[in-house]
Design a protein that fits this description.
MAG_DAG_Lipase, single chain, hydrolase activity, hydrolase, about 15% strand, Alpha/beta hydrolase, 9 helices, Hydrolase_4, alpha/beta, Rossmann fold
């Protein structure tokens, strides 16, 4: 029996703790948190959405939940282990030694979502996955592993994948992706919790939070303006994920990649941060998006921030239009397996 509790997001939001047992990385008991949005007048006509956050993040984007609910989707979000609602005292925020550790909570979350909808609609619903940044790396790797099992991704009821500025490569000078990655590989094995000297920037955080220059309100202890420290073991896991992605995946479902059209890296906030990705290199996102499979649409959204759905109002409105257009395509005119790839607005 599931034990849903009221969530801090307020009316219509509930949460469920998913106990995961002992942490493989030795930081005690771990759990994930499933959040659901249940508007009083909501009617599910198109299935469910499961949203997964990125690094230094958790689910607080109620306007995203409400957008999907207004279009007939049951909305769920997952705070991964050691993130947001799931972070426990004494644990290193977001730390895992292998991104595959997330497979357990992802699989259990999808099962719970489908079970919840079956109880109300009478049949298990299709699930659309939505992910941001590091979540946009975690989910394709998981889907590729699922698709290699008997029955493939289709047997899980997963319908499609929407990636919001996915982290597909390590930004910065080329030596960081060669020599730097080799160093991280060694250090991450022998001193996994070693904090790396990545530099501190509050530019992106300041563009978002209401206490600085933004319009959004969220917990700064779960999403600090300067981000959480980057540890060697965690980055080693991420770089291993990047390498696997670059060899090519087959996620088994259509994918939409939304990104900004411009990157702007800086240590301090300026107005330019409001109209660009201040975290990732959008050229890398474009380059590696083709590694997801043969049904990927790539849409650059001019003026978007790193989290496209936290952009300024006119920009995020355009992003939602692009999202809805793509959803209409996969739900009302979904291509059959083996059909030609969808064409995006920018090549990968």
């Amino acid at each position: 029996m599931t034990n849903w509790m009221p969530d801090e997001l307020g009316d219509g939001y509930e949460k469920l703790t998913i106990a995961l047992g002992a942490d493989p990385d030795g930081e005690g008991e771990v759990a994930a948190t499933l959040i659901r949005y249940r508007p009083r007048d909501g009617e599910v006509t198109r299935g469910a959405v499961l949203y997964v956050h990125g690094f230094t993040d958790y689910f607080f984007q109620t306007h995203v939940a409400e957008h999907f609910a207004q279009r007939g989707y049951a909305f769920f979000a997952l705070d991964l282990r050691k993130c947001g609602r799931s972070l426990r005292p004494g644990q290193t925020p977001h730390f895992v030694g292998d991104l595959a550790e997330y497979d357990e909570e992802l699989g259990r979350a999808v099962t719970l979502v489908r079970t919840e909808l079956a109880a109300t609609a009478g049949t298990p619903a299709d699930v659309l996955l939505v992910a941001h940044s590091t979540g946009g790396l975690i989910l394709p790797l998981w889907l590729d592993r699922l698709n290699r099992q008997p029955g493939g991704t289709e047997r899980t009821g997963i319908k499609g994948l929407v990636l919001n500025s996915p982290w597909f490569d390590l930004q910065g000078p080329a030596y960081l992706r060669s020599v730097g990655t080799a160093v991280v590989d060694v250090l991450g094995r022998i001193r996994p919790h070693q904090v790396l000297p990545t530099g501190v920037s509050n530019a992106y955080g300041s563009s978002l939070h209401r206490s600085a220059h933004g319009e959004w309100d969220y917990h700064l202890d779960w999403k600090p303006l300067t981000g959480f420290p980057v540890t060697a073991g965690w980055l080693r896991a991420v770089r291993a994920g990047h390498a696997r992605l670059h060899r090519g995946l087959d996620i088994g479902v259509p994918a939409l990649v939304l990104r900004s059209d411009l990157s702007h890296f800086t240590s301090h906030y300026s107005d330019r941060v409001d109209v660009a990705d201040a975290v990732l290199d959008v050229r890398q996102i474009a380059r590696w998006s083709g590694c997801l499979g043969d049904r990927t649409a790539i849409v650059p959204v001019p003026g978007a921030r790193h989290d496209v759905f936290l952009s300024t109002e006119p920009v995020r409105a355009r992003a939602f239009v692009e999202l809805d257009r793509w959803l209409t395509g996969i739900y009302e005119a979904a291509p059959q397996a083996g059909a030609p790839a969808q064409s995006g607005r920018a090549g990968a």
